[in-house]
Amino acid sequence: MLFQTRAQQRTFCIRTLLGFLAIFAGSFLLGRFSTAEVDNILGNTNFNGISHTPIADDVALTSSSFLRVQRSRFLGFSRSLLDPKTTAPRTKNTVTIYVTKESYHLALRTNDSDDFIFNPALSIFKTDILQRYGTGKVQYIIRERAECNLDCNVGNGAALQQEPCLAVTRHMNKDMKCDIHQLKCNYPQCKTMVTNDEMCARVGDAFDARLYYTSESKPESGYLPLGPRLDAWKSLKEMAHLKSPQFFIMPSSKRKFAFNAVFSQRTNLARQELASAIESNGPTSKLPVYASMTEQELEDEKRYALNTDDYVEVLLDSIFTLSPAGHNPECYRIFEAVESGSIPVFSRGDLYGARHPNPQNRKALGDVAHPCKDALVDWYEAPVVVLDSWDELYPTMERLLEDPEALDEMQDRLRVWYDDYMRGVVSKFEDFMLDSTKSPVATEIERPVDSPPTFKRT
């Protein structure tokens, strides 16, 4: 090629060099991320976190620092891409999670319907929490509606499972259809987890891990937090996707509501006391408040006579979110609030599990503590609001709202604390799953007559 001037020659050389650099950068991107991840980066797909597919489909999901940081920025948690806690290692370990069909649904939505209510305790496996806050060293394969047979036919080839695996069942007050014996019999190579045990009735059983923390579990036990409910997480994700790049977490000082009170009064006597305090103070207070306090306990996504999208919009526009304890001090609302940039408000008794939620227990036993001891111990030092009693709610809110700058600083501190907390607890769970010294060893244990053999860990 001939050039009439040296300037033309320099321009050609520069453009050629930039072209080669662009090709190299594209090759590096494609080599580092999967096709789905690259599509997501380019905005062509919905990043879906952990799969929720039938048992016939195995879907592997991996962590990537880039996606995790980008998703965190949508939710207001900015981290440097070079932060070692957000840089994914190249080595991946596969963990298979068998979610038994007995744990998948709660009950029929209506007596004359085949439509089951999804068990929200499984949300942690169906959202992106394990991926977004993971270290990147683990990829999860979620197998839903896995078998847990009475005749102990080992489900889904789990007896041949060589890689780490977890079998999940749920607590039931009566007629537990997949108890610890059946679970270990069907999945002898896997660690076991129980969900929905809000009152810690299964602490004495030989489960390896659980939702709903209690300090009375064995120190080596695994634990995962509830995280946001699946319906709320989907709603927040869709809002971020539809409004991107305009979507962002609004500073506390710019929000419409001083606080929201969205809960059912049926699950804890303390909630009735809180509802009474709000109803008595509301008419005379000038604080902008959103309150939806039903007297019914609703299990599905139509919670509190408020659809999920409206509920999430309220969280996104509230400085504070009241977080009274339900059956357990830990509830989905805590995580949904923080993910939406709203600061949880606890009563000291709820935070420390000082009172039993059931009024009948209180009547018989006095002011007895919650059976899940230290359920929210990790939150004791969190930058949240803790009231000695709900009677302090309105005076405390009025005082805090006098300093908008301090509100924004509290919100920022909570973002950083929550990010570190979730990364820490998910990392600890990864280590628990990858620790071969805690792998179950199949040894027969006693069973009632006519019951199938099962196994325990030694």
Give a brief rundown of this model.
The protein has 458 residues and is of the alpha/beta class.
Notes on the structure:
With 458 residues, this protein is α/β, with parallel strands linked by helices. It has 15 helices and 16 strands. The protein has a seven-stranded mixed beta sheet with strand order 1-5-2-6-7-8-9. The chain has a five-stranded parallel beta sheet with strand order 11-10-12-13-14, with helices on both faces. Strands 3-4 form a two-stranded antiparallel ribbon. Helix 8 (230-243) packs across helix 10 (308-316). The longest helix is centred in the last third of the chain and has 31 residues, at 404-434.
Q: Please, how many helices?
A: 15
Class per helix and strand makeup: alpha/beta
Rounded average pLDDT:
77
Strand content: 15-25%
Largest sheet: 7 strands, mixed
β-strand number = 16
SSE diagram, text form:
Elements: H1 6-32, H2 35-41, E1 60-61, H3 65-74, E2 93-100, H4 101-104, E3 105-108, E4 116-118, H5 123-126, H6 129-132, E5 138-146, E6 165-170, H7 180-186, E7 191-195, E8 209-211, E9 222-224, H8 230-243, E10 257-264, H9 269-281, E11 289-294, H10 308-316, E12 318-322, H11 332-339, E13 343-347, H12 348-351, H13 359-365, E14 385-387, H14 393-400, H15 404-434, E15 443-444, E16 455-456
Parallel strand pairs: 2-5, 2-6, 6-7, 7-8, 8-9, 10-11, 10-12, 12-13, 13-14
Antiparallel strand pairs: 1-5, 3-4, 15-16
